[in-house]
Amino acid sequence: MVVDKTGTLTLGKLRVSKVIPLGNFNEKEILELAGSVARASNHPLSRAISTYGTYTISYAEEYPGKGVKATVNDYNIVIGSKDFVGYNDNDLLCKANERCVYISINDKPAGIICLTEEVDEGIRRIVRELISKGYRIIIASGDSIERVKAIAEYLGIKEYHSSLKPDDKKKLVHNLRKKYGLVAMVGDGVNDIEALASADVGIAVGSLSVVANISNIVLTRGFYSLPFVIGFSKRYYKALILAIALALIVKLGTMMSGLMGLLPLWAIVGVGDDGSTLLSFLLIISLVLGYFRRD
Protein backbone atom coordinates (compact mmCIF):
# COMPACT_ATOMS: atom_id res chain seq x y z
CA MET A 1 0.00 0.00 0.00
CA VAL A 2 1.54 3.28 -1.17
CA VAL A 3 0.47 6.31 0.87
CA ASP A 4 0.97 10.02 0.27
CA LYS A 5 2.22 11.99 3.28
CA THR A 6 0.87 15.53 3.39
CA GLY A 7 -2.88 15.64 3.89
CA THR A 8 -3.13 11.85 4.11
CA LEU A 9 -0.88 10.69 6.93
CA THR A 10 -0.42 14.20 8.28
CA LEU A 11 -3.17 16.74 8.84
CA GLY A 12 -1.63 19.13 6.33
CA LYS A 13 -1.15 21.60 9.18
CA LEU A 14 1.90 22.97 10.95
CA ARG A 15 2.31 23.53 14.67
CA VAL A 16 4.91 25.48 16.62
CA SER A 17 7.42 23.05 18.09
CA LYS A 18 9.69 25.58 19.77
CA VAL A 19 10.66 29.25 19.91
CA ILE A 20 14.34 30.25 20.09
CA PRO A 21 14.95 33.79 21.47
CA LEU A 22 18.08 35.45 20.13
CA GLY A 23 17.75 38.96 21.56
CA ASN A 24 15.98 40.87 24.33
CA PHE A 25 12.54 39.36 23.73
CA ASN A 26 11.24 36.20 25.41
CA GLU A 27 9.38 33.33 23.73
CA LYS A 28 5.91 34.70 24.50
CA GLU A 29 6.73 38.16 23.15
CA ILE A 30 8.27 36.74 19.97
CA LEU A 31 5.22 34.57 19.30
CA GLU A 32 2.76 37.41 19.92
CA LEU A 33 4.64 39.96 17.79
CA ALA A 34 5.45 37.53 14.95
CA GLY A 35 1.92 36.15 15.05
CA SER A 36 0.50 39.65 14.69
CA VAL A 37 2.66 40.30 11.63
CA ALA A 38 1.81 36.88 10.17
CA ARG A 39 -1.85 37.89 9.91
CA ALA A 40 -0.88 39.94 6.85
CA SER A 41 0.09 36.77 4.95
CA ASN A 42 -1.72 33.67 3.74
CA HIS A 43 1.42 31.52 3.58
CA PRO A 44 1.08 28.15 5.42
CA LEU A 45 3.85 29.11 7.85
CA SER A 46 2.17 32.43 8.56
CA ARG A 47 -1.21 30.78 9.13
CA ALA A 48 0.39 28.45 11.67
CA ILE A 49 1.64 31.29 13.88
CA SER A 50 -0.99 33.96 13.19
CA THR A 51 -3.22 32.58 15.96
CA TYR A 52 -0.67 33.75 18.53
CA GLY A 53 -0.94 37.38 17.41
CA THR A 54 -2.32 39.81 19.99
CA TYR A 55 -1.24 43.19 18.63
CA THR A 56 -2.73 45.57 16.08
CA ILE A 57 -0.61 46.20 12.98
CA SER A 58 -0.21 49.81 11.88
CA TYR A 59 1.57 48.91 8.64
CA ALA A 60 2.29 45.66 6.82
CA GLU A 61 3.64 44.64 3.41
CA GLU A 62 3.95 41.06 2.19
CA TYR A 63 6.72 39.88 -0.12
CA PRO A 64 5.34 36.66 -1.66
CA GLY A 65 7.54 33.64 -1.04
CA LYS A 66 9.86 35.65 1.20
CA GLY A 67 8.11 37.15 4.20
CA VAL A 68 6.37 40.18 5.69
CA LYS A 69 7.54 43.58 6.92
CA ALA A 70 5.34 45.37 9.42
CA THR A 71 5.16 47.96 12.16
CA VAL A 72 3.69 46.89 15.49
CA ASN A 73 3.71 49.16 18.56
CA ASP A 74 6.57 51.24 17.10
CA TYR A 75 8.59 48.06 16.44
CA ASN A 76 9.80 47.49 12.88
CA ILE A 77 9.37 43.75 12.50
CA VAL A 78 10.40 41.45 9.66
CA ILE A 79 9.42 37.78 9.52
CA GLY A 80 10.17 35.21 6.85
CA SER A 81 13.03 33.25 5.35
CA LYS A 82 16.58 33.47 6.62
CA ASP A 83 17.83 35.45 3.62
CA PHE A 84 14.85 37.81 3.61
CA VAL A 85 15.20 38.65 7.29
CA GLY A 86 18.99 38.91 7.06
CA TYR A 87 20.25 36.01 9.16
CA ASN A 88 23.71 34.69 8.35
CA ASP A 89 23.81 31.47 10.38
CA ASN A 90 21.61 29.79 13.03
CA ASP A 91 20.89 26.85 10.70
CA LEU A 92 21.60 24.29 13.41
CA LEU A 93 19.11 25.71 15.89
CA CYS A 94 16.17 24.02 14.16
CA LYS A 95 16.09 20.30 13.39
CA ALA A 96 16.28 19.07 9.81
CA ASN A 97 12.62 18.09 9.79
CA GLU A 98 11.47 21.49 11.08
CA ARG A 99 10.52 24.60 9.15
CA CYS A 100 11.76 27.94 10.39
CA VAL A 101 10.34 31.44 10.53
CA TYR A 102 13.04 34.02 11.26
CA ILE A 103 12.22 37.25 13.08
CA SER A 104 14.07 40.53 13.35
CA ILE A 105 12.93 43.52 15.42
CA ASN A 106 14.33 46.96 14.70
CA ASP A 107 16.92 45.42 12.35
CA LYS A 108 18.28 43.06 15.01
CA PRO A 109 17.84 39.23 15.18
CA ALA A 110 15.06 38.56 17.69
CA GLY A 111 14.34 34.87 17.39
CA ILE A 112 13.38 31.81 15.37
CA ILE A 113 10.06 29.98 15.41
CA CYS A 114 10.37 26.27 14.51
CA LEU A 115 7.37 24.39 13.16
CA THR A 116 6.66 20.72 12.44
CA GLU A 117 3.88 18.90 10.62
CA GLU A 118 0.98 17.90 12.82
CA VAL A 119 0.29 14.16 13.00
CA ASP A 120 -2.78 12.86 14.80
CA GLU A 121 -2.16 10.04 17.28
CA GLY A 122 -5.13 8.25 15.71
CA ILE A 123 -3.27 8.00 12.39
CA ARG A 124 -0.35 6.40 14.17
CA ARG A 125 -2.65 3.80 15.75
CA ILE A 126 -4.28 3.00 12.41
CA VAL A 127 -0.94 2.60 10.62
CA ARG A 128 0.32 0.21 13.28
CA GLU A 129 -2.94 -1.73 13.12
CA LEU A 130 -2.60 -2.17 9.35
CA ILE A 131 1.06 -3.19 9.65
CA SER A 132 0.19 -5.74 12.34
CA LYS A 133 -2.34 -7.28 9.93
CA GLY A 134 0.37 -7.82 7.34
CA TYR A 135 -0.08 -4.79 5.10
CA ARG A 136 3.12 -3.31 3.67
CA ILE A 137 2.87 0.49 3.88
CA ILE A 138 5.19 2.70 1.85
CA ILE A 139 5.26 6.51 2.01
CA ALA A 140 5.56 8.35 -1.33
CA SER A 141 6.03 12.09 -0.86
CA GLY A 142 7.29 15.13 -2.70
CA ASP A 143 8.67 16.55 0.54
CA SER A 144 12.30 16.53 1.67
CA ILE A 145 13.97 13.36 2.97
CA GLU A 146 14.35 14.79 6.50
CA ARG A 147 10.65 15.54 6.90
CA VAL A 148 9.51 12.28 5.32
CA LYS A 149 11.92 10.28 7.47
CA ALA A 150 10.70 11.98 10.65
CA ILE A 151 7.06 11.16 9.89
CA ALA A 152 7.92 7.59 8.85
CA GLU A 153 9.85 6.92 12.05
CA TYR A 154 7.07 8.39 14.18
CA LEU A 155 4.45 6.20 12.49
CA GLY A 156 6.62 3.08 12.42
CA ILE A 157 6.86 2.86 8.62
CA LYS A 158 10.13 1.34 7.41
CA GLU A 159 10.04 2.16 3.70
CA TYR A 160 9.63 5.71 2.39
CA HIS A 161 10.45 7.75 -0.71
CA SER A 162 10.97 11.52 -0.79
CA SER A 163 11.25 14.35 -3.34
CA LEU A 164 8.96 12.52 -5.75
CA LYS A 165 7.23 14.21 -8.66
CA PRO A 166 3.82 12.94 -9.85
CA ASP A 167 5.47 10.81 -12.54
CA ASP A 168 7.89 9.37 -9.97
CA LYS A 169 4.96 8.21 -7.84
CA LYS A 170 3.42 6.56 -10.89
CA LYS A 171 6.70 4.73 -11.64
CA LEU A 172 6.97 3.64 -8.00
CA VAL A 173 3.48 2.11 -8.11
CA HIS A 174 4.29 0.39 -11.42
CA ASN A 175 7.51 -1.12 -10.03
CA LEU A 176 5.79 -2.29 -6.85
CA ARG A 177 3.06 -3.99 -8.91
CA LYS A 178 5.70 -5.93 -10.81
CA LYS A 179 7.49 -6.87 -7.60
CA TYR A 180 4.63 -7.62 -5.18
CA GLY A 181 1.43 -7.93 -7.25
CA LEU A 182 -1.66 -6.01 -6.14
CA VAL A 183 -0.92 -2.45 -5.01
CA ALA A 184 -3.26 0.17 -3.51
CA MET A 185 -2.49 3.89 -3.67
CA VAL A 186 -3.85 6.33 -1.07
CA GLY A 187 -3.63 10.04 -1.81
CA ASP A 188 -5.46 13.35 -1.58
CA GLY A 189 -3.92 15.79 -4.05
CA VAL A 190 -3.63 16.51 -7.75
CA ASN A 191 -0.01 15.30 -7.65
CA ASP A 192 -1.32 11.82 -6.72
CA ILE A 193 -3.64 11.44 -9.72
CA GLU A 194 -1.24 9.49 -11.94
CA ALA A 195 -0.33 7.08 -9.15
CA LEU A 196 -3.98 6.61 -8.16
CA ALA A 197 -4.92 5.80 -11.73
CA SER A 198 -2.07 3.31 -12.21
CA ALA A 199 -2.67 1.38 -8.96
CA ASP A 200 -4.88 -1.72 -8.76
CA VAL A 201 -7.00 0.14 -6.22
CA GLY A 202 -7.00 3.94 -6.04
CA ILE A 203 -8.15 5.35 -2.71
CA ALA A 204 -8.81 9.09 -2.54
CA VAL A 205 -8.76 10.90 0.80
CA GLY A 206 -11.17 13.85 0.85
CA SER A 207 -13.64 15.04 -1.74
CA LEU A 208 -11.47 16.84 -4.31
CA SER A 209 -13.47 16.07 -7.45
CA VAL A 210 -10.51 15.59 -9.80
CA VAL A 211 -8.94 13.02 -7.48
CA ALA A 212 -12.22 11.34 -6.54
CA ASN A 213 -13.26 10.85 -10.16
CA ILE A 214 -10.30 8.60 -10.99
CA SER A 215 -10.31 6.67 -7.70
CA ASN A 216 -12.05 3.39 -6.90
CA ILE A 217 -12.77 4.38 -3.29
CA VAL A 218 -13.26 7.82 -1.72
CA LEU A 219 -12.65 8.27 2.02
CA THR A 220 -14.62 11.39 2.89
CA ARG A 221 -13.74 11.00 6.58
CA GLY A 222 -10.03 10.75 5.89
CA PHE A 223 -7.48 8.01 6.57
CA TYR A 224 -9.32 7.06 9.76
CA SER A 225 -11.98 5.12 7.83
CA LEU A 226 -9.49 2.99 5.86
CA PRO A 227 -9.49 -0.03 8.27
CA PHE A 228 -13.30 -0.09 8.17
CA VAL A 229 -13.33 0.02 4.34
CA ILE A 230 -10.77 -2.80 4.12
CA GLY A 231 -12.71 -4.92 6.61
CA PHE A 232 -16.00 -4.27 4.85
CA SER A 233 -14.49 -5.15 1.45
CA LYS A 234 -13.18 -8.46 2.76
CA ARG A 235 -16.53 -9.23 4.38
CA TYR A 236 -18.39 -8.44 1.18
CA TYR A 237 -16.01 -10.55 -0.90
CA LYS A 238 -16.50 -13.55 1.38
CA ALA A 239 -20.27 -13.04 1.33
CA LEU A 240 -20.22 -12.92 -2.45
CA ILE A 241 -18.26 -16.18 -2.72
CA LEU A 242 -20.62 -17.89 -0.24
CA ALA A 243 -23.66 -16.59 -2.13
CA ILE A 244 -22.37 -17.95 -5.45
CA ALA A 245 -21.59 -21.31 -3.85
CA LEU A 246 -25.07 -21.42 -2.26
CA ALA A 247 -26.74 -20.56 -5.59
CA LEU A 248 -24.83 -23.32 -7.37
CA ILE A 249 -25.73 -25.88 -4.69
CA VAL A 250 -29.42 -24.96 -4.81
CA LYS A 251 -29.50 -25.04 -8.62
CA LEU A 252 -27.67 -28.37 -8.74
CA GLY A 253 -29.99 -29.83 -6.09
CA THR A 254 -33.16 -28.77 -7.90
CA MET A 255 -31.84 -30.09 -11.22
CA MET A 256 -31.04 -33.47 -9.68
CA SER A 257 -34.43 -33.57 -7.95
CA GLY A 258 -36.12 -32.72 -11.24
CA LEU A 259 -34.28 -35.45 -13.12
CA MET A 260 -35.30 -37.94 -10.44
CA GLY A 261 -38.93 -36.81 -10.66
CA LEU A 262 -39.04 -35.56 -7.08
CA LEU A 263 -40.08 -31.98 -7.97
CA PRO A 264 -42.63 -30.62 -10.45
CA LEU A 265 -41.52 -28.23 -13.20
CA TRP A 266 -42.86 -25.09 -11.46
CA ALA A 267 -40.88 -25.95 -8.33
CA ILE A 268 -37.69 -26.51 -10.32
CA VAL A 269 -38.04 -23.13 -12.03
CA GLY A 270 -39.09 -21.30 -8.86
CA VAL A 271 -36.58 -22.79 -6.44
CA GLY A 272 -33.69 -23.27 -8.85
CA ASP A 273 -33.83 -19.81 -10.36
CA ASP A 274 -35.65 -17.19 -8.29
CA GLY A 275 -35.22 -19.10 -5.04
CA SER A 276 -31.44 -19.42 -5.33
CA THR A 277 -31.14 -15.74 -6.26
CA LEU A 278 -33.25 -14.68 -3.26
CA LEU A 279 -31.30 -16.88 -0.85
CA SER A 280 -27.99 -15.55 -2.15
CA PHE A 281 -29.19 -11.97 -1.79
CA LEU A 282 -30.39 -12.57 1.77
CA LEU A 283 -27.06 -14.18 2.66
CA ILE A 284 -25.08 -11.18 1.39
CA ILE A 285 -27.35 -8.73 3.22
CA SER A 286 -27.12 -10.63 6.52
CA LEU A 287 -23.32 -10.88 6.41
CA VAL A 288 -22.85 -7.23 5.44
CA LEU A 289 -25.30 -5.97 8.07
CA GLY A 290 -23.55 -8.18 10.60
CA TYR A 291 -20.31 -6.31 9.91
CA PHE A 292 -22.00 -2.93 10.46
CA ARG A 293 -23.51 -4.11 13.75
CA ARG A 294 -20.12 -5.36 14.90
CA ASP A 295 -18.40 -2.05 14.10
Summarize the structure in words:
The protein contains 11 helices and 12 strands. It has a 6-stranded parallel β-sheet, with helices on both faces. The protein is elongated and about 105 Å long. The chain has 295 residues and is an alpha/beta fold. The two termini are 23 Å apart. The protein has 3 domains: 12-117, Calcium-transporting ATPase, cytoplasmic domain N, CATH 3.40.1110; 121-228, HAD superfamily/HAD-like (Rossmann fold, 3-Layer(aba) Sandwich), CATH 3.40.50; 231-294. Helix 2 (27-38) packs across helix 3. The model has no long low-confidence stretch (mean pLDDT 85).
Question: Under the CATH scheme, which class of the largest domain?
Answer: Alpha Beta
Q: Which range best describes the helical content: under 10%, 10-25%, 25-40%, 40-55%, 55-70% or over 70%? A: 40-55%
Mean pLDDT: 85
Which topology of the largest domain does CATH recognise? Rossmann fold
Q: Looking across the biggest beta sheet, what order are the strands in?
A: 9-8-1-10-11-12
Care to count the β-strands? 12
Instruction: Report on the biggest sheet.
Output: 6 strands, parallel
Question: What is the radius of gyration?
Answer: 28 Å
- Going by CATH, the architecture of the largest domain would be 3-Layer(aba) Sandwich
Present the secondary structure layout.
Layout: E1 2-3, H1 5-9, E2 14-21, H2 27-38, H3 44-50, E3 57-63, E4 67-72, E5 75-80, H4 82-85, E6 99-105, E7 108-117, H5 121-132, E8 138-140, H6 145-155, E9 159-161, H7 166-180, E10 184-187, H8 193-198, E11 201-205, H9 209-213, E12 217-219, H10 226-259, H11 265-294
Parallel strand pairs: 1-8, 1-10, 8-9, 10-11, 11-12
Antiparallel strand pairs: 2-7, 3-4, 4-5, 5-6, 6-7
Helix pairs in contact: 2-3, 10-11
